[in-house]
Design goal:
heterodimer, A: 187 residues, alpha+beta, Beta Polymerase, domain 2, 5-stranded mixed beta sheet, 4-stranded antiparallel beta sheet, 7 helices, B: 113 residues, mainly alpha, Four Helix Bundle (Hemerythrin (Met), subunit A), 5 helices, 0% strand, globular
């Protein structure tokens, strides 16, 4: 597993106007190969010109710590949650704080989770067993749930961290089972 | 008309058209036009300093990053808004920021607006 920028927590110089610096988009997810790295800098309410200038300085610092191009966005809390910001769900749900090395949603005392509902009804018995091995492991080898700190809430429902969605979905798709995904934010 | 004259003419034209759109509250259009003005004046600056003009955004970013970091900073900062102007609502404050940046480059190239 490649270490993500938010996990490296590079030392950055930034002003007290910065509330958080958030990595989001495909670069924050496991199992994806992003072309660039999306960063949102969240500011206190300061003039936009000042936000953009400060974000540019942060971008320069991040570029030295990243192998792929940085795409930077700046927001205050009003513009972050504005209807016209199409990235807000992505930032809030999948975002990882580079300052705190944790989920951005935790800054609001929230926890974002992916719940995957699946049905094994149409699978043959041996494929049901293989599916179970995939989730829970076999013969001392870890399954995805242990490997990625997921949880079986009940038969047919697992809960995982958002950054591992792609890994679980790809693994489940191999079995051609019916499944659906719910993105939940827990207070 | 030589390259320098063309860049001055287009930079001014985009800037004044940006003002027109700005005054009508059409900020997405104003952002696009002010950014185009910024690019024209940036190219003019590169022309004045090196005798050549970039032929693409890639080349523009490469040259300015290597030789004129203050120009690169303006372009790099504002380019994402130009790119996303098709799908995002741009506001008055953003249009003013990019207008100021175009003005800055006009001053650096000694172009009167």
């Amino acid at each position: 597993m490649m270490q993500k920028l938010w996990q490296k927590r590079p030392k950055l110089a930034y002003s007290k106007d910065v509330l958080d610096i958030v990595q989001f988009g495909s670069s924050a997810e496991e199992g994806k190969n992003p072309n660039d790295l999306d960063i949102a800098v969240i500011f206190n309410k300061i003039p936009l010109k000042e936000q953009l200038n400060q974000a540019q300085e942060i971008k320069k610092q991040l570029e030295t710590a990243s192998e792929i191009p940085i795409h930077i966005n700046s927001f205050d809390l009003y513009s972050l949650f504005d209807n016209s910001n199409f990235a807000k769900e992505n930032i809030l749900f999948y975002g990882k704080s580079i300052i705190y090395g944790d989920d951005f949603s935790k800054r609001f005392a929230l926890s974002s989770k992916i719940q995957i509902y699946y049905s094994l009804e149409k699978l043959r018995k041996k494929d049901k067993i293989r599916f179970n091995y995939m989730l829970n492991g076999k013969g001392g080898e870890y399954g995805l749930l242990i490997k990625y700190a997921g949880e079986l809430l009940k038969p047919g429902l697992i809960e995982i961290a958002p950054e591992f969605e792609n890994i679980f979905v790809n693994a489940i798709k191999e079995f051609k089972v019916e499944f659906k995904i719910k993105r939940v934010i827990i207070a | 008309m030589n390259k320098e004259e063309i860049l001055i003419k287009s930079g001014k034209e985009y800037f004044y058209s940006g003002n027109d759109e700005f005054s009508k509250g059409r900020y997405n259009s104003a952002v696009v036009l002010y950014f185009k003005s910024l690019v024209s004046f940036s190219d003019l600056y590169v022309l004045q300093k090196t005798g050549n003009t970039p032929s693409s955004h890639n080349e523009r970013f490469k040259i300015t990053k290597e030789k004129f970091s203050e120009v690169y900073n303006l372009l790099d900062k504002d380019f994402p808004f130009y790119q996303s102007s098709y799908v995002q609502i741009m506001g008055r404050e953003l249009a003013e920021v990019i207008k100021d940046d175009a003005k800055t480059m006009a001053e650096k190239t000694k172009t009167g607006l």
